[in-house]
Amino acid sequence: QESAAAITRWNFQAKAITSAVEKIRQSTQSIGRILFAQCTELIIPATSRGLPPNLAVEEPSESFIFKGTDILIASLLSELGFLSNPVASHVQTAEMGNQSVNSLALISARYTLDALDILSQLAAAHLVAVCQALDLRALHTRFLASLELDFGTLLKQGLHKYIANAESMDVLLGKCWKAFTNQLDSTTSLDSTVRLTRAIVNLQPLIIPAMLPCADALKALIACMERLEECTVGLFERIREQYLKTGNATDLLGRASKRIYNHVRKEVGIPFVGPETLATPACPERSGRGLTMGALNGRVRAAMASGQLYSVVVECIKEVEKADVSKERISAKL
């Protein structure tokens, strides 16, 4: 040309695709990290505020149902972290130097599909764990609701004669109930009988200072603790057995949570995982009747892949939007 200007043209528009799908892949790692954190906090008793370790409805010393899930989500998150690394930085010169820069869009897109598949596995395991945690919380809530009245009645009947100040009896009962529930929340790693017994025994330092200083008072206290222990342990075992058969946590959930919970439990067919649910090599007599944790996670993942589960989520969002529109109309009228 007359100007003698050199014109350089770049024809690597697919680089934009590379950048876009890498952002998706990095987002999957961030979402996976959130799901992993939430799921592990449910499984670990130190952070679950009253849930048993490994989300086991059986005795913690005998059942480790969700330990495999804990290991699974850790490995999935590690793989997501690996896949979230950029692909564009690995470009090489090709075609005898004619292609000095390549987009690598196909490679990046392929790894993004892998990352999305792994995220769906993690989300499925997380959803199974959340439903299990909801049922365990509902079981514990129903146990406390059933026990509270008998708890106060037994203490009153056994100790009212020996309380120095009768007017302080109600205050003492309130303190004992609060201490009892707090003790249960902090001892979930113990088997149920030991846990409940310890919570009752630890009430004595609260009760003794309020009692009359006599031998009969101590005998009454011991007898009252024994009756309370027998009542508490028996009630817990009955409620746990009943909940395993007919348990349902929907009465404790909000509208959106209730939709998801009902869909997972009824439509997808994920049961409350108890001693009769799973088939393990150690229990060949149950094989064929039960499921594995992998099979349960696989059902939820299949529901995600088919779009069945997402339609329920969309319904929840539409319900919220309708509620917001109704509130706006009411506010406008006011």
What does this structure look like?
The protein is mainly alpha-helical. Helix content is 66%, strand content 0%. The chain contains eleven helices and no strands. Helix 3 packs antiparallel against helix 4 (105-159). The longest helix has 55 residues, at 105-159. The model has no long low-confidence stretch (mean pLDDT 87).
> What oligomeric assembly is this protein in?
single chain
Structural class: mainly alpha
Low-pLDDT runs: none
- First-to-last CA distance: 73 Å
Order of helices and strands: HHHHHHHHHHH
> What is the average of the pLDDT values?
87
Number of helices: 11
Helix content: 55-70%
Shape: elongated
How would a crystallographer describe the biggest sheet? none
Rounded to an integer, what's the Rg over CA atoms? 29 Å
State which percent range the strand residues make up: under 5%
Give the beta-strand count. 0
